[in-house]
Amino acid sequence: MLIAAIVITALAIALIGYLLWKAPRALSAADFAFALLPVLIGILIIARWPHDPLAVGLGVILVLIGVYSANRLHTGH
Fold first, then answer.
1. Better-scored residue on pLDDT, 33 or 58
2. Sign of the C-alpha dihedral, residues 10, 15, 18, 24?
């Protein structure tokens, strides 16, 4: 399960980077923090408790919230 979480996290970070890079408007530092803060918290939770399925699941959910936030910034909503 930990390997799957690492793969999902790596793909999510790549997707966030792409969405923020291709955003149709100029983004501020607060926009980047809005998308990357849940990812950072998710990675820290996964790193702290790598063998706890609940913690890994929570970390993956936080990473996916970061992807959703980046998507909202990309579409301009």
1. 58
2. negative
